[in-house]
Design a protein that fits this description.
The chain has a single domain, classed as 60s Ribosomal Protein L30, Chain: A (2-Layer Sandwich). It is 46% helix and 17% strand. The protein has a 4-stranded mixed β-sheet with strand order 1-4-2-3. Strand 2, helix 3 and strand 3 form a beta-alpha-beta unit. Helix 1 runs parallel beside helix 4, helix 1 runs antiparallel to helix 5 and helix 2 runs parallel beside helix 3.
């Protein structure tokens, strides 16, 4: 396991996370993309949830984020692939993102958000 990964996320849970990111990225809320933006959102305590990719190189790029999330009590979870995470977030084809911060979740995505949050809390 990589230095930034605190726990394994089962495949079915990852699928739920990708679906949630797709919902929020398609207008059912607001998100921030990239390790710098995610770090700022976590430090400020404004993120509702953080999603990190496992296949980040170098892994140290995200090593600090789980620590900040625990301190600020922000739920976080992992997905396998940063290219698929970028695609789910609505970024252009071929783009990659190491992490995403869910900033706002609209009513239409609230049920999906609650389900993923409960799973993240159980894994952590």
């Amino acid at each position: 396991m990589s230095v930034h990964i605190a726990f394994e996320t089962p495949k079915d849970v990852q699928d739920s996370v990708y679906e949630l990111v797709k919902l929020v990225g398609s207008g059912e809320g607001r998100l921030k993309k990239g390790s710098n933006e995610v770090t700022k959102a976590a430090e400020r305590g404004t993120a509702q949830m953080i999603v990190m990719a496992e296949n980040v190189n170098p892994a140290e790029l995200l090593a600090h984020i789980p620590l900040i999330c625990k301190e600020k009590k922000i739920p976080f979870i992992y997905v396998e692939d940063q290219a698929y995470l970028a695609e789910a977030a609505g970024m252009s084809s071929g783009a990659k993102t190491a992490a995403i911060a869910l900033m706002e979740v609209s009513k239409g995505a609230q049920e999906a958000f609650s389900g993923v949050k409960d799973q993240a809390d159980a894994l952590n």
